[in-house]
Amino acid sequence: MNQDFAKAGTAGPVLGVETSCDETGVAIFDPGGGEGGRGLLAHTLYSQIRMHADYGGVVPELASRDHVRKLLPLVRETLSRAGLTVADLGGVAYTAGPGLVGALLVGATAARSLAWALDVPAIGVHHMEGHLLAPLLEPDPPQPPFVALLVSGGHSMLIEVSAIGRYRLLGDTLDDAAGEAFDKTAKLMDLPYPGGPALARLAEQGRAGAFRFSRPMTDRPGLDFSFSGLKTQVLLAWQASDRSEQTKADVARAFEEAIVETLTIKCRRALAQTGARSLVVAGGVGANRRLRAQLAEAGAREGFRTYFPRLEFCTDNGAMIALAGSLRLSAGQHETPAIKVQPRWDLESLPAA
Questions:
Q1: Record-annotated residues binding substrate (predicted)?
Q2: What is the rounded CA–CA span in Å between residue 23 and residue 281?
Q3: What is this structure's pTM?
Q4: C-beta of residue 92 within 8 angstroms of C-beta of residue 115
Q5: Which residues are annotated as a binding site for substrate?
Q6: Kind and range of the H or E element at 29?
Q7: To bridge 25 with a disulfide, which of 18, 57, 94, 309 should be the other Cys (CB 3.0-4.6 Å)?
Q8: In Å, what is the CA distance from 322 to each residue of 31, 69, 100, 130, 336?
């Protein structure tokens, strides 16, 4: 990690805990350095995809219960991988929101209790700030100012980043987030859960130009997103088609192209509006191959650089929480002993670090 972002402030490695939805993530980040100079000592992740597949989506109560079962064993495993004991920890970070309230409370309760028992500081991390900062785990991280595109199942937003904790919302989704649109479109075409990755894989077999859907809200000024109408277009096209396997792939490709081109157009607008020449793309949809390729191509043509986390850190994970928490603990921020979570939390309300 670039040391411009971190100042020594914690007494040792920081344990990060992520339980905002259906993945239990644990990691240990050492602000003093670590493997590859990135400070990340170890990370583990358990996904509940198989459990929720039977229901076609995340069941909040089941997610909470599974976090209870998996969290402490993952903490022990992560400490073992890092060659540490709990006594070596200098702080604890956990996702405090946004997310499912029951799932958040599992992680917050365990993390806050551990910090209290060890007499080390604890910090609640904003889940989307974790995603936004995930590219800082890479050997060549971005430096502010930059624009961040945060795209996942629950969020599609463009953020102007002038410093850590200094965020300005440029555009947000008015209805479905990009990842949510992927999942819902996959479901209407009877693709397996989780739908977004399944649709992206199917799109690779589609024929270019067989279908074309609109690029929502790109024909007007502004940086907001809206994908519900696109989903309706796909439904009507699919219902009117022969519903063959090739047609399904063709529709998937046209849908993915519409999402990717829409996101690319809005990113280019945001960069032009702010004057930034660096773009960070994070969140689950940031793993999409077509999106990565199109933004890299646009950047090479127009003179901006795009930063992505590695694929394993695009989806929810403990490493991004450990990193974000370490930065805020290093800035002297910490929580009171009370256990608090915020299922809804405005990113712009965060204090500077």
A1: 150-154, 183, 196, 288
A2: 20
A3: 0.93
A4: yes
A5: 150-154, 183, 196, 288
A6: strand 23-29
A7: 18
A8: 10, 21, 20, 8, 18
3-135+313-349 shares its CATH topology with 142-308: yes
Token digits of residue 86: 């709990």
- Residue linked to tokens 């949809």: 285
Rounded-to-integer distance, Cα 97 and Cα 56, Å: 24
CA distance 164 to 123: 15
Per-residue pLDDT tens for 97-150? 999 999 999 999 999 999 999 999 999 999 999 999 999 999 999 999 999 999
pLDDT tens digit sequence for 161-173: 999 999 999 999 9
The string of pLDDT tens digits covering residues 310-336 is: 999 999 999 999 999 999 999 999 999
- pLDDT at residue 8 in the model: 36
How many angstroms separate the CA atoms of 159 and 177, rounded?
15
User: Which residue positions form the known binding site?
Assistant: 127, 131, 150-154, 183, 196, 288, 316
Q: Kindly list the distances between the CA atom of residue 116 and the CA atoms of 91, 110, 186, 312, 335, in Å, as whole numbers in the listed order.
A: 10, 10, 44, 31, 11
Q: Indicate the fold that domain 3-135+313-349 takes in CATH.
A: Nucleotidyltransferase; domain 5 (3.30.420)
**How many C-beta neighbours within 10 Å does residue 166 have?**
15
Domain map (residue ranges) of the chain: 3-135+313-349, 142-308
The predicted structure's pLDDT at residue 5: 38
Residue 224 CB burial class (10 angstroms; 0-12, 13-18, ≥19): middle
- Say which CATH class 142-308 falls into: alpha beta
Q: HSE, CB side, 13 Å, CA atoms: give it for residue 73.
A: 8
- Residue 338's contacts (CB-CB under 8 Å, 6 or more residues apart) are none
